[in-house]
Amino acid sequence: MRKKVDASMRFGHLHEKVKLMESETHGVGVFCIEPISRGTLIGEYVGDKLECLEEADQRTDRRYQMVVRDADGGFLYVIDARKKGNFTRFINSGAPPKQFNVKFVMNYGTMQVFATAIRPIKPGEELLADYEFQ
Asked: How many CB atoms neighbour CB 108 within 10 A?
């Protein structure tokens, strides 16, 4: 049985249909506790905004960094969620694409990145992301 992880305010407000638990994928993961419909906004990926790729490369722990690109693939900035991130940083990457149930989507109008369900997610399932932007 998976052990629940203390999701204190350190990780920000969690979506009401998920919780942090131990994961076989990468230590800690985000798990569904109530059914989540396709298209549901799960949360915003937040953290320090680094506008220089070299600055991001110099940081020793890059596990929670997300490179944000424009629609043509050009570099915009890096979100480093290690210190100022919320629970979305624990959405792990799935192995085969058929396991993905979450997609990180860029809103170019507001320059924000959101985790969104790309298919219905059942209670007990770990949220697994496709980290390629749409």
From this structure: 11
